[in-house]
Amino acid sequence: MKTIATLIFVLFIGLTAQAQTSTEEVKIDTVEMTIVTETATEEVSLENTLEVARLYKRDNARVIKALSFTTKRNKAKMA
Q: At residue 54, does pLDDT exceed 80?
């Protein structure tokens, strides 16, 4: 009996929700886009520059250290 009442209730809610949909027509503004036939290219000049980079023993040493922090709640508790 309970399942039948639940089924009727769900169908009633579905039908009322479906009956309340509005039938307003929505106007959509169209956007006209043009096709580009020419592309501008810029030349890049390469310069020989000497730059110094730092080398660390391990990759992402600072990032790994920052991500591996522990808090008081991370410790195991005895039961």
A: no
